[in-house]
């Protein structure tokens, strides 16, 4: 393993460039926030919507409500669809991560469910095999200014050809769909296809059908006598099955507890996402008992360079006690994944911003460690560039650990003095309402410099600081060399922390 680590220290460049089509299908669909129809004249769009609705209603009556035009085109199913959306939201919502969660609504019909969910989750894509329905859904989305997008894609045909990049999907909806798959492919193959999806997607919502609903269609005999037959055997395989509703049709959430990406495999008990508001930043985290898997989904705004930076930094810091142990890594079509040890303790944000205040001794000890980590990283990789409390863990013994190296670089991308000062400000109890704007001021750093021209540094005058921390802060405001400064203060604080 050590030889393997050494051999890839100098990683070969393999960036996924925006101008290429080197992205898998679902990755491309979720990357674009633009409606496939583009901008439309409002009156012409409304006229087209009404024509399409007449065609659709001739086939399915008022089966689907028209999102944004409910007064003119109501549906008896609106209440049911809104209930389903509420149940889905309750199960999936991770506060602050809504922008990152990718939802695929398979068999979306006119798109009401997808557009309703898009009120909370901006990244929702609906699939339909009927072009009239996808055109209608996209026109309704433009009319209602909804961010949901719709495409005529047959996911089950792609599934049979192993052409589904499920790593680009977080939530998959099969609402009132599986009976149609049974009619088309047969019960056994439909069940096998469902199991294949369930093994590769974290949240799958399935609405099942009763035989009695299809007696008049002459297809009842094709369906299982028990709708739940489609889910038999899942619990033995480790899936979690939760019944969300019984009427009018059984409605289930199925969650997996293990993830496989290339040669990487993790059994996980925690799933989380980046809190970035940028839709072109897509990172996902799986936490197991002892392991942690970080997934980078490449986009036009996040190429494979991000993944490579993280991997290179981890390889270069394996001798440091404060970094995770690297277990393995893999890069596939449109993604990169890194398996590492799970850090002990909790994010430093929980201690710094929590109700239980740190003692002065604890603050000093944490500050000294933070400075030491800055020095260690400076000597190994250059600049972490985002060494803030949310990227640090602290254990029960107040030992600090660092993770998230995707911004690591030999040159400063963020003002390192500003990062240091704002984190020390947090540790010593400082609070300002405009902190995000202050952090944003630390970028960019001009070439050949170490400070941002417009950097805003915190005011420590109201905080109760020990003399050594005061001296550190004062010197950080004017120090000419980051490497010399951080080495000097690591030595000073380490000496002060030692028992006399």
Automatic annotation (TrEMBL):
Domain of life assignment: Bacteria
Record keyword Iron-sulfur present: no
Keywords for the protein's UniProt record, in alphabetical order: Methyltransferase, Transferase
Any one GO BP annotation for this protein: methylation
Coiled-coil residue windows: none
InterPro entries: Kinase-like_dom_sf (IPR011009), SAM-dependent_MTases_sf (IPR029063)
Molecular functions (GO terms): methyltransferase activity
The protein's name: Methyltransferase domain-containing protein
Species, as recorded: Oceanimonas pelagia
